[in-house]
Design brief:
Blueprint: H1 16-30, H2 35-54, E1 63-64, H3 67-75, H4 82-102, E2 107-108, H5 131-158, H6 165-176, H7 184-188, H8 194-200, H9 204-211, H10 218-229, H11 233-237, E3 244-246, E4 253-260, E5 265-272, H12 279-290, E6 307-309, E7 313-315, H13 319-333, H14 340-355, H15 358-365, H16 370-373, H17 383-403, H18 406-409, E8 419-420, E9 426-427, E10 456-457, H19 463-485, H20 489-495, H21 497-507, H22 513-522
Helix pairs in contact: 1-4, 2-4, 3-4, 5-10, 10-12, 10-14, 14-15, 19-21, 19-22
Length: about 525
């Protein structure tokens, strides 16, 4: 059960009886929900309180029996979209209904429910972020991160220079606040003209940013990490300080892992190790900047995105604060308007395009089903490329079939093809680079993915090819036994099991019996490297 957010019993600004009834209703209806959901319902109640204040009902001892209609009429002219108005109205109506059933003395007579609804506009399609814009966003975030690091590095050096007036002022403030920045009242009663000196230096907020990482400084780190891990925006904001995990199979790779409560599982994304601007490196750099704040973070000490507010309170930014900082970031860097949710969709679409398959986006977004991924990047977006690839594959396969003869059917020699992979798959273009979509790094080095690569061609009427598939299956099975004896079965499952499954389940069952007989006679001629 989620812990109920502690709300101030006077924060609604209504009479004591109404205030108490609404808080009890909120606790009963939302006490089991996530904190973000509790906070959203509470914001709806504050809208109700504002409605009552503006209608002269702030000091009444009981809610009017037509309070639901009053709130509807107040909400109707507000500058909000129809769906937002309806969501606010539904939340408030459910709370008031609970009050009428359980605290009837807080309502002046039998409650009159209003069942009207607000017209909803069709959802507007947001403009998509193209690859160039995504790169610009990332570059702007990385530039801001470097400036933040330089600012705090310079400050740490200057704070040792006791001849600098600004250094003297900051050190005195930290001394007065016992390691934190003091309150305005403490500054005003210090008797050292500190208030005037602070004002001349730019104010407490500016002096705080001179020493500590501020909430607004977190945004560039958030954007750069979110663009790389493609996580749910809320899950990314909730990243833990220990989110980096070592890859058990490769020393040159590492993971960022986080929990997604709704999916009830951990999400994981793979990155190259020791890359300066990779997501794991940015996590380490952020941890170094706010490490000194951890002892003062309280309940947030295990969170990655913590910062100092006004030099005193260490906490995480609120959901609204994140959006406020994003608005300013967009304005400063003259970027097109976008929201955090757009970054995940952009990531899905770019991986879909670069990988040539929606499976690339599915794996990046940690989805269980392609149907879920299709909500982020539609198959229709790639229809032209898909049709073009199908046509090319059909033409290549047709050439292979026409070129095969009875003579080649009984010969171990392979037909003339573009390239032959280790386990018997034919590759239409090894330099197309399934592992590197631009082909800039030479031949594809992900040979174990041939079983699922869109560039793989497997004509099952060629005994020579089928013979190698049979030999490859036997070699994989014997290697699997060796991996089990060596205690390395997880490595086999990760690297070679997909190929074995494809051969056994998707290819060999569809080979004609006549072709299989010929292939069995020549399969012993193939040699395979030892699997590592």
């Amino acid at each position: 059960m989620s812990r109920l957010i502690p709300f101030n019993t006077r924060s609604l600004g209504l009479s004591k009886k109404i205030n108490k009834a609404l808080i009890e209703a909120h606790r009963a209806l939302c006490g089991h929900q996530a904190k973000t959901t509790q906070a959203q319902t509470w914001r709806c109640l504050r809208k109700l309180a504002l409605c009552m204040v503006q209608n002269g009902l702030a000091h009444t001892d009981a809610l009017p029996k037509n309070i639901v209609s009053i709130f509807y009429d107040w909400l109707a002219p507000q500058v909000l979209c129809g769906s937002t108005k309806q969501s606010l109205f539904n939340s408030v109506r459910s709370v008031i209904s609970w009050v009428s059933r359980n605290r009837s003395n807080a309502i002046d007579g039998p409650l009159t429910l209003d069942v009207r609804s607000f017209p909803r506009q069709p959802p507007a399609r947001r403009a998509e972020i193209d690859e160039k814009t995504a790169e610009k966003i990332l570059n702007c975030a990385l530039s801001d991160i470097e400036n933040i690091e330089k600012r705090l590095q310079v400050a740490s050096v200057e704070l040792t220079d006791l001849t600098n007036p600004k250094t003297k002022l900051v050190n005195r403030l930290l001394e007065l606040g016992q390691g934190n920045f003091p309150t305005q009242r403490a500054i005003g009663t210090s008797g050292e003209s500190l208030a005037r000196r602070v004002l001349e230096a730019g104010g407490l907020r500016e002096l705080s940013r001179y020493v500590f990482l501020s909430n607004e400084d977190l945004l560039p780190f958030y954007l750069a990490i979110q663009l790389q891990i493609a996580g749910n925006p809320h899950s990314t904001a909730d990243l833990r300080r220990n989110c980096i995990e070592a890859n058990p199979l490769r020393d040159d790779r590492e993971w960022i892992a986080w929990e997604k409560p709704r999916a009830k599982k951990f999400q994981r994304v793979d990155f190259p190790a020791k890359k300066w601007n990779s997501a794991p490196s940015l996590v380490r750099r952020l941890k170094a900047l706010n490490e000194r704040l951890v002892p003062r973070a309280g309940d947030f000490k295990d969170r990655l995105f913590i910062a100092c507010s006004n030099g005193r309170v260490v906490k995480i930014p609120s959901a609204q604060s994140w959006h406020n900082y994003l608005t300013n970031f967009i304005k400063v860097h003259e970027l097109p308007d976008f929201d955090f949710v757009d970054l995940r969709k952009t990531n899905a679409r770019l991986h879909h395009q670069a990988g040539g398959s929606i499976l690339a986006a599915k794996n990046r977004l940690n989805h269980k089903s392609v149907a879920t991924t299709a909500n982020y990047t539609s198959l229709n977006d790639r229809a032209f490329d898909h049709n073009k690839f199908i046509a090319q594959s059909q033409a290549a396969l047709n050439e292979l079939v026409l070129a095969s003869t009875l003579a080649t059917a009984s010969s171990p020699e392979m037909s003339s093809v573009s390239a032959q992979t280790v386990f018997g798959f034919l590759c239409s273009n090894p330099f197309n680079g399934y592992g590197d979509s631009h082909g800039s790094k030479g031949p594809c080095d992900h040979f174990f993915r041939c079983a699922t690569c869109p560039g793989a061609l497997v004509p099952l009427d060629d005994p020579s090819i089928v013979s190698k598939l049979l030999a490859a299956r036997d070699h994989l099975l014997s290697s699997k036994d060796a991996f089990i004896n060596q205690g390395r079965l997880p490595r086999f499952r990760m690297l070679y099991q997909p190929t074995l499954d494809a051969i056994e389940q998707k290819l060999l069952p569809f080979v004609a019996s006549e072709v299989m007989k010929v292939a069995q006679q020549i399969k012993k001629q193939w040699a395979f490297p030892e699997l590592e």
